[in-house]
Amino acid sequence: MMIERTLTGLRGQHIPPARAKELGQLGYMQWLGALPGHSSYEYEAVRAYLDVAMYIRTDPAVAEFCFLICESLRFPLQPLDLGMPKPRRRGGARERRQQV
Asked: What's the whole-model pTM score?
């Protein structure tokens, strides 16, 4: 199931709010791109939300992902505020080791 892969990428409690927003947006775009073309968006969105809702309070990126799903269902004809992260150095392997 695609939502499990997306959820794995979103989970991480020790990230700054700006990074959580970036990850939530990337996760939403990944999930959206993996939807089958013949599926019902509303059905899949509700299903994805229910699958990850238990992590909203503990994982800020999951909360952003869920916010985007809710906004897309609430205002289906309005564009979402999505964007790719700005390219920047994130510290490399040393920084990743310190985050664990």
From this structure: 0.76
